[in-house]
Amino acid sequence: MKTIPKKLIKLNPKSSGRNSSGKITVRHQGGREKRFLRHIDWKRNLALTARVESIQYDPNRTSDIALLVYVSGIKDYILAPQGLKVGDTVISSEAAEIKVGNCLPLKNIPIGIEIHNLEIVPGKGAQMVRSAGNTATVQSKEGNVVVVKLPSGEIRQFDGTCKATIGALSNPHHKEEILGKAGRKRHMGVRPTVRGVAQDPRSHPHGGGEGRSGIGMKSPKSPWGKRTLGKRTRDRKKYSNKLIIKRRYVK
């Protein structure tokens, strides 16, 4: 097992889907194994050369993580992109080379380059494109505005000073993984889900009827009677609406 610096980990507390008064507010959670959170450097503010000491598995996320050792002796984790190997050197700088693992502002990244760990607000740290195998692409630049195509297909404007990391994220076959047994899902903290049609009408709108009678309505509903298909939930006045050039569900 690869060593994990103690300063970079802390216990990930369990809530099992319960609020402060002990009531279940999020269903189908509970019973997972003990986990430790690894500290991930989302901001990449340290403008020093760092060597990749190891590539590790992180139970809290889908992609692998890389342990960096900076020339000053500081250690920290980043998300590991595809192609990053032990012994490679990376840096976060405005004048950094366009190389896998390097971090630099969007305005300094050439058009057509694949990126991940994308900031929305300059200096806040990466918030987008952080899942296994994901990648975004720089499409165009005009002044300090950079247009990026996101993994969902959405095309959106970003401030040119927002940072991003070069490359696509590791573990691209994560979605193809077969768990193998129900018990593994329980170890991950996911409790069973009972189908609505298998319940009685008091417990779920889909319940009741003799034999296999279907849901008995035009569109499915949640256990609380709300329609679950076709209703948009995005805020019509959301601040970022003006930054979106093309929505992800427009063909």
From TrEMBL:
<dbReference type="InterPro" id="IPR008991">
    <property type="entry name" value="Translation_prot_SH3-like_sf"/>
</dbReference>
<dbReference type="InterPro" id="IPR012340">
    <property type="entry name" value="NA-bd_OB-fold"/>
</dbReference>
<dbReference type="GO" id="GO:0016740">
    <property type="term" value="F:transferase activity"/>
</dbReference>
<comment type="similarity">
    <text>Belongs to the universal ribosomal protein uL2 family.</text>
</comment>
<dbReference type="GO" id="GO:0003735">
    <property type="term" value="F:structural constituent of ribosome"/>
</dbReference>
<dbReference type="Pfam" id="PF03947">
    <property type="entry name" value="Ribosomal_L2_C"/>
</dbReference>
<feature type="region of interest" description="Disordered">
    <location>
        <begin position="195"/>
        <end position="251"/>
    </location>
</feature>
<dbReference type="Pfam" id="PF00181">
    <property type="entry name" value="Ribosomal_L2_N"/>
</dbReference>
<dbReference type="InterPro" id="IPR022666">
    <property type="entry name" value="Ribosomal_uL2_RNA-bd_dom"/>
</dbReference>
<keyword id="KW-0689">Ribosomal protein</keyword>
<keyword id="KW-0687">Ribonucleoprotein</keyword>
<feature type="domain" description="Large ribosomal subunit protein uL2 RNA-binding">
    <location>
        <begin position="17"/>
        <end position="92"/>
    </location>
</feature>
<dbReference type="InterPro" id="IPR022669">
    <property type="entry name" value="Ribosomal_uL2_C"/>
</dbReference>
<dbReference type="InterPro" id="IPR002171">
    <property type="entry name" value="Ribosomal_uL2"/>
</dbReference>
<feature type="compositionally biased region" description="Basic residues">
    <location>
        <begin position="228"/>
        <end position="251"/>
    </location>
</feature>
<dbReference type="GO" id="GO:0002181">
    <property type="term" value="P:cytoplasmic translation"/>
</dbReference>
<dbReference type="InterPro" id="IPR014722">
    <property type="entry name" value="Rib_uL2_dom2"/>
</dbReference>
<dbReference type="InterPro" id="IPR014726">
    <property type="entry name" value="Ribosomal_uL2_dom3"/>
</dbReference>
<protein>
    <recommendedName>
        <fullName>Large ribosomal subunit protein uL2</fullName>
    </recommendedName>
</protein>
<dbReference type="GO" id="GO:0003723">
    <property type="term" value="F:RNA binding"/>
</dbReference>
<dbReference type="InterPro" id="IPR005880">
    <property type="entry name" value="Ribosomal_uL2_bac/org-type"/>
</dbReference>
<dbReference type="GO" id="GO:0015934">
    <property type="term" value="C:large ribosomal subunit"/>
</dbReference>
<feature type="domain" description="Large ribosomal subunit protein uL2 C-terminal">
    <location>
        <begin position="98"/>
        <end position="227"/>
    </location>
</feature>
